[in-house]
Design goal:
The structure is a homodimer.
Chain A: H1 7-24, H2 31-42, H3 49-56, H4 60-72, E1 76-80, E2 88-92, H5 94-112
Antiparallel strand pairs in A: 1-2
Helix pairs in contact in A: 1-5, 2-4, 3-4
Chain B binds a DNA duplex (30 and 30 nucleotides) through helix 4.
Chain lengths: ~110, ~110
DNA sequence: CAGAAAAGAAACGCTTGCGTAACGATCGGC
DNA sequence: GCCGATCGTTACGCAAGCGTTTCTTTTCTG
């Protein structure tokens, strides 16, 4: 069953969520960073820099930098892959899960108030 | 009738939209800029720098800079208010309307594919 | 009509992200 | 074992955003 949305409702939802997120959270993740974060948490692991770069259609340094930033915020973690030590496996964190959980609630609440 | 969303569906929708938007459009508006843009286009005018700053909970220079950037992209326009020449009234543009229309379609399509 | 107040922009120094290119570390094929 | 390929990071110069402060123009007040 698809999510039923009219054009104006869709933009209205985005509007309400963006507005509330800006008001509530000073951490201003870029859309790219958000896409990366959601990819990590919603798609089954393992996640690598190269894989994320390919999925997002961006270069590898973009991923590295985003992981730097979000790592400093505690939203993700990096672990060297012991099977192939060239790889880095991106790990989820409790704080990251909490962050997205709150964000999901925000979407739902704003959707309810539409 | 509210938009019905479960937590995972809400994040999934955001994920799909963010991913597709990153892949398709090199213009990477920040969440703040997007919130401003949507406010301008979804809420009845007039819109002023001061009003937007208050609504978003940010300082005036943030709005000025965002309008500079989005103005350069053709997404919004600025016109001096002739009634009170201290004010600037933010105007919508055809290109901005088109941009949001496409974005709305993106949300709907991704919502359908959930 | 002088002085305070208000609106928006500009200036300042700083931080962060970008794309491209170069780099060390590690693996795989011969 | 070596040499090319692969993975992630780092370096570089540049553009854009931030918060704070200052400035200019315009309006309101007494």
């Amino acid at each position: 069953m698809p999510v039923e949305l009219t054009p104006s409702r869709a933009l209205g939802l985005w509007h309400a969520v963006a507005l509330e997120q800006v008001r509530v959270d000073s951490r201003d993740l870029t859309l790219r960073q958000m896409a990366i974060l959601l990819q990590i948490y919603l798609v089954p692991p393992p996640h690598t820099v190269r894989g994320l770069a390919a999925t997002l259609g961006v270069t590898k340094p973009v991923i590295t930098r985003a992981l730097d930033t979000m790592g400093a915020l505690g939203l993700v973690d990096r672990v060297r892959d012991e099977r192939d030590r060239r790889n880095v496996v991106i790990k989820r964190t409790v704080e990251g899960a909490l962050y997205l959980e709150k964000f999901g609630d925000l979407i739902i609440n704003q959707g309810r108030n539409l």
